[in-house]
Design goal:
This protein is an alpha+beta fold. It contains 9 helices and 6 strands; from the N terminus they run H-E-H-E-H-E-E-E-E-H-H-H-H-H-H. The strands form 2 sheets. A 3-stranded antiparallel β-sheet has the order 1-6-5. Strands 2-3-4 form a 3-stranded antiparallel β-sheet. 23% of the residues are buried. Keywords: Ligase. InterPro entries: aa-tRNA-synth_II/BPL/LPL, BPL_LPL_catalytic, Octanoyltrans_LipM/LipL.
Amino acid sequence: MEAVKQHGLGFVRRPTGGRGVLHEHELTYSVIVTEEHPEMPKTVTEAYRVISEGILQGFQKLGLEAYFAVPKTSSEKEALKNPRSAVCFDAPSWYELVVEGRKVAGSAQTRQKGVILQHGSILLDLDEEKLFSLFKYPNDRVKERMQKVFKTKAVAINEISKRKIDLEEAKKAFKEGFEDGLGIILEPYTLSDDELDYVNTLAKNKYESDEWNFKR
């Protein structure tokens, strides 16, 4: 938390749980849908596959050959249950997106009160030094080793793209990707003043509080 404050970053506990994510230089998305929707599989893993088709299509529209990660060996599956690092992008989960063997998007899903929430982040650029400064390691040698391994497991779009892709181009590509991948039409929506007041009040009184973020 000292490093979070030193970098002037915010901190929030997300409802899907999981490992740590530095939200910066990225496009974030969220999909909210009833569990009763006829196109939504009953299992988390298969619902991941359906929703993540929108992300796959988005990468393809940017000219990147992304594909789904599917752990095959027992050791790969065990690694998902017992990660060696607290860094979310350290390893792909079922049906997360990979380019050239490295993770380019991280997602998480939860189901509550009959509703599915899947959200995630799509890396445009990555400040690796800042990311690793936010986590604790037994010593510098372990940190350096984990950081070196990380380079082989995760990558940002602009590190592998033949040209610079900015946020606006990414937004357009993934909007169209979700429309094509899920067979839907996305319509823009602007929150009213009352809705914005409600959101800001909820954030201030709950989601920005230490009581919420540190409770178990």
